[in-house]
Write a structure and sequence with these properties.
With 162 residues, the chain is mostly helical. Helices cover 67% and strands 0% of the residues. It has helices at 2-27, 40-63, 68-75, 81-109, 114-126, 134-141. The N and C termini lie close together (9 Å).
């Protein structure tokens, strides 16, 4: 389960770092903002599309593990739980991280239109609700971390390391 958690953490932090790097590149004028600031129709269409994507993906990503099919996938077989959590956790993470990154790029491309900035910030705030710590990973897969027979790493002598 630790390996799954580490991959999900890497996905989250890679997305956050890429978004921060985008901000850094545009704010230092290495990349010039406002390439499409004069195209009002493209700006409107991109705005509508991103609003729909963000408004649709946020509730879906937060509710994803409660959908019966997904919940049964995660909790039915404890031996397959880490692999299935990795699949569904990656889908959930990308439902928040990709719109966050795209909205930040659109914010600068359309001449710092704050609509895209706020959408990106909203996605970033939602990442706190799906932060993949080990206790959340165990709870979402139905694995009892307090069980006597549960040992996340039998080769590790430190029981508090998980």
């Amino acid at each position: 389960m630790r390996h799954t958690r580490d991959i999900l953490m890497a996905e989250l932090w890679t997305s956050v770092i890429l978004t921060a790097l985008t901000v850094l590149l545009f704010e230092t004028n290495i990349l010039l903002p406002g390439a499409f600031s004069e195209d009002d129709q493209a700006q409107l269409m991109a705005g509508i599309l991103m609003i729909l994507v963000v408004i649709g993906f946020i509730p879906l990503s937060l509710y994803l593990f409660k959908i019966r099919y997904v919940h049964e996938q995660l909790t039915s077989d404890e031996s397959l739980a880490p692999r299935r959590l990795l699949l569904w956790g990656t889908i959930r993470m990308m439902m928040l991280c990709l719109p966050m990154f795209v909205c930040m790029i659109l914010y600068y491309i359309f001449g710092e239109n704050v609509r895209f900035f706020y959408l990106s910030v909203i996605c970033a705030l939602c990442l706190f609700m799906v932060y993949p710590n080990l206790s959340r990973c165990l709870a979402e897969t139905g694995i009892n971390s307090k069980a006597k027979d549960y040992d996340p790493d039998p080769n590790d002598d430190n029981p508090r390391s998980y």
